[in-house]
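Lab notebook, bench 4. Still working through the backlog of constructs that have no structural model yet. Next entry is a single chain of 96 residues. Request: give me the structure tokens for it.
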Amino acid sequence: MNEIRDTRVRIAVKFYINNLKLKHKKFVVRECNKEVLTIANKGKGISYLHTLDYLKKMPSKNADDLKSRILWLTWSLFSVKHIEKAKEIFELNENF
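Model written out:
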């Protein structure tokens, strides 16, 4: 049941992202990755001290563990926010 919901969310986000230009897509992916990894790494140590537990990149979309599914669902939710943010930013910049 949860896999069906995850798939529906991914399809909806994919639809939104496919309608963007390439520079908007890059912006959304970069910002979402940065925000989700910041949240996932919060509380795992001191920011200036390197630990091995930090996530440096997003896990595979096909991973079966619960942690990666939660990260990708969070990424999907944040992507909607960043898509709207990208539209606002780039519409302002393109008018000049």
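Notes after review: The longest helix spans residues 66-94. The helical segments are 2-18, 22-41, 66-94. Flag for follow-up if needed.
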